[in-house]
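Page 37, top half.
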Amino acid sequence: MSFAKFAALLHDKQLVLSPLHMFEDPFEGAGGKACNMEKLGDAIIDTFHSLDSAKDGIEELEARNIGIDKQKEVARLWLKVGDDYGHVNRMYTFVNCWHENETESEAMWKLYTAHQPEGVAIQTTYGALRKAINQPEIQIGRITYENFDVAFMPGDSYGWYKRKSFEHEREVRVMIEPDDPEHLKQIEDAYKKKHQVRISLDVDIKALVENVFVSPYANDWFKELVEKEMKACGLDKPVVYSKMNEQALFFFSRRQLRQMWKSTLEGKNLNK
């Protein structure tokens, strides 16, 4: 994250969640591809007809002269209506994103610090994140990456699926879908006024943060600035440089090694 966002987190002690429709990926919250809508509608009806438990329902439809072609037509109509609702649902589903990995990711550093090299990464765990938020209505989980060309996502779980093109993100997200009528009204009013809509969750910073990593692209003075900001906010946690910035060790080529070994045997001085 940028230093500005890090400082805001320290001072406000809040995690900011953004609605799905604000993200760059147009498939955030999607259940599949629009071009496969007809295929999905047909598959729903074909599956319905294959179920023994649906026998009575099928007989009733046929008694009303609602054949399988009409049933598929209705299924596609319902999917179109569902698509309209889904676009609205994206505006009322709020997430905060994290990257899960045992090591640092060069791709993620570049993604989040390409235009502002003075960036930081907070290291935490699932348990620490859950404890720091301490709100039972909050969901925390891993994103599942699917091939949207052939798969459809299960209902009521769309915010937990993304296309395989994003698999490098290895995302864990904090999610909330407000259902309190008063809160929903506030969100709706904010949209009508064309305000940016976010949800801020109170968080225990000391429970959340285990380590703070400084971007490998940051200048030397930046680590000291981060430490000063943390001290001013009463956060006593380790601040370390990205390990990607460590000095590399190189080796001889085979040709050079043979030459050096030969020179050693001959008692000659070693030269480059």
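Page 37, bottom half:
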Amino acid sequence: MRKTILVLFSMLVSTLTASQEVASYQKMFDILMQKMSSTPSKFSTKEEEIMKKDAKNLAKSLPNPGIQVGQKAPDFSLKNAFGEELSLQTELKKGPVVLVFYRGAWCPFCNMHLHVLQESLGEFKKYGAQLITITPQTPDKSAEQIKKDGYPFEVLSDLDNSVMKEYKLYFELSKELLDIYESHGLDIEAFNGKSHTALPIPGSFVIDSRGIVRAMQADTDYKVRMEPKVIVDALIKISKDKQ
């Protein structure tokens, strides 16, 4: 199933790039879902029931994930894919930060969101903002992803899950779900390291230079992501507030 999604996603990205169209995440998602609707599911009925149960339990345990608008964004220092350490406090001195937590290079919906954000970097830069991403995957996996996809933004590794916890996005995958993933060729530990099976709820935060969250989105449904337009609107408001 994962391989099928990745193939469809690659086709979609190629189509959009060829037409020089910068799509919203929702638009890309709708096209992908339409293409996938003609592909039979690789999961058994029992596996689908387990995944639905896990999704329901996660939503119940984290009804309001993520730090909220108006709150101070917790500072952190993490290493990027090439061993360089970055701190939020230092980066905020340069201007607003669009901070995005994603599950890993193995997640097609994360890749789709990152692609849309990459296409929007020019708009973010108009307001002095930069994109910083955080993932639990190891730096070598991030380096591979950067090389493959040509990402010009920072990809930081939260190897001890401390930042995910600070931002109220942390959760552990159940053994049942891990077994399903592995039976379909996805080994989370191969990406995150041995015995590291935690993931973040995908979350996006627009943080002003004072470190205050001005816009955010986090949803236990990993397919739901913040649109670049929402990010740009928040950056415009930040810019106007400074005048």
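Margin note: The radius of gyration is 18 Å.
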